[in-house]
Amino acid sequence: MPVDSRRLQGPESAFSYTLLEKKDANAEESILSADMQKMLIDSKQIRKDKRKPTDARPLFLRTGIISQAKGSAYIEQGNTKLVCGVYGPREVQKKSDFRLNGQLFCEFKFAPFSCQKRRSHQQDNEELVLSGLLREALEAAVCLHHFPKAQVEVNVMVIENDGSPLAAALTCASLALSSASIPMYDLVVGASVRQLPKVLLLDPTKDEEWQPELSHDQNNSNLTVGYMPSMQQVCAYVHEGVSNTEDLEQMLKLVTEYCLKVQPIVQLCLKETVEKMLANEGENKDAE
Amino acid sequence: MAEILLSEAEKAFIHHGVQDDLRCDGRTRLDYRPIILETGLVSNASGSSRLRLANSDVLVGVKVELASPLPEKPLEGRLEFFVDCSANATPEFEGRGGEDLANEICRFLQMSYMSGDTINLAELSVLAGQQCWVLYVDILILECGGNLYDTVSLAVKSALYTTQIPSIKVATMDGDQPELELSEDPYDTKRLNTQNVPCLVTLMKIGNHYLVDPTPEEECCSSSGVVVAVSGTKKITAVRKIGSGSLHPESLVSMLKTASEVGAVVNKILMKTLLEEERAGKTQKVGFMR
Description:
Chain A is an alpha+beta fold.
């Protein structure tokens, strides 16, 4: 990606045509939580995509998707699709960063066409913060002391963003890291939950996610958690919106229970990867 | 966060102190260091404040300007944050070193201000869909002595409290073009309601306990913590886990509960102090001489 770091581009005058959409009067008033809830979930507690509030979207995982990378993984969580590539351990690129423990460099990027509103091809502030969050979460899981003076690069590219990109990135990155044979304490499983005044929605889609623009109400928020199920440790925690501490406790419990259920799926994918790698090695030895 | 090198013995000393609820400087685990606050220092800014939390020094200036509102939100004004970690604060911020931290603080502030009804942005609208007030909140980190998130949030809240927004009247002319008239009286201004504006509380975990307002040495001993944005009504508007360690869900929940209690107290004391300063009137400014 050509990155021009010397010039500051002025603001673009182009804007999305969806702003010209005629909004009906009902939509204008439904900033209130009660109507928002009606929009997302009907009286029988079924969401727009026919899920129950505590149902997550179907998960698809595959490793070895980038042949040149040391390890890679692809995740599909409903319509959210992202790819993660892991390179390393290799020598630290910047000479000043010389540490006794290994270092992790994470890059989180939305493809320009991945979201409803076009993203710039350079990392903007939101992506930089998400990269930092991803790095801090993975640093808790990776055994950094196993590769001193070296660095591992984790690159996440979101191909389609339909809600919970950070949660999917956490799961995908830890799968990619483990398939790259980077020593880790535990797999990180990411999950997110949307809080509405009377119900919690697990694994929200983009439409269900809390938007800072729309909701100005109490008890409306979004929580993304990165959890290490075997060690029972939370390594990433991001909450946005207005909540009470009691609600936060409930949301955390829901998310950790979900992560425990997802862990065997990730482990199964990893097991199949290892079996395939061993089978390939066996074939190569036979060929020799 | 200048290069803090602690020996194992020093780290053990801090750990034991925290266990006994007696930190190196004599505080308990939930005590803040002394805070010095002064507002209205910068004459060219619509609102300003300087907050010194022990060794952390932050200067905030708020400038109000007229601009067109965002197309998605035609009836609201905006708040734009910018954090500048100057190289004066600590040698690590030299060049572009402080950019990451500045970006994180900026983004977290934006998130915590956008949630809920912390600040009523509809008040900042002048002419629906055409003109609105934009508050540029510029934060200068002059010195870094640990616990930047808290210092910055308290300074920003104080600066917004004292921000004067000029009154503008919309005069409709015969043609379609409405004209904006600025009030002739320079003291005819309005202020924002900052009652619900959140304060950030940082809690770092050391051993089995957590601390409020960590010093740089304590930050070095700790591997993880949370930053919680607590609004005036004791609600939590944003949370982020910081540091490269991990937390058990139960300790995380108890940290959140403590943070909301501490945040409520901090909010109350800050508002009280700001009211007192306002009542004291335009006495001699101490400024940077102290």
